[in-house]
Design brief:
By secondary structure, the chain is an alpha+beta fold. Helix content is 48%, strand content 16%. A three-stranded antiparallel sheet has the order 1-3-2. The longest helix has 15 residues, at 48-62.
Length: 63
C-alpha cells in the first residue's frame, strides 16, 4: 500500500532551504502553486509529490 505523504508550510520552508514563513506564504499563494489537499486548523497541507514537482520546475524562478 502506498503511503500518503503530506507537507505543511514548515516542511515547505525546509524544502526551499529554510526560507521565512512570510516567503512560504507568498509562494504557496501563487496561482501556479499546487492546490492544498486539506485545510486544517494548523494550516493548509499539500501532497508532498505535488510540491516536490513544483519546486523542481520552479526553483530557478524563486532565487
Amino acid at each position: 500500500m502506498k503511503r500518503l505523504r503530506l507537507v505543511g508550510s514548515a516542511e515547505i520552508r525546509v524544502m526551499l532551504g529554510g526560507i521565512s514563513r512570510q516567503r512560504v506564504y507568498q509562494i504557496t499563494n501563487r496561482r501556479d502553486f499546487p492546490e492544498p489537499v486539506a485545510q486544517l486548523a494548523m494550516g493548509n497541507v499539500w501532497l508532498a509529490e505535488d510540491v516536490e514537482k513544483w519546486v523542481a520546475e520552479k526553483r530557478s524562478d524563486l532565487d
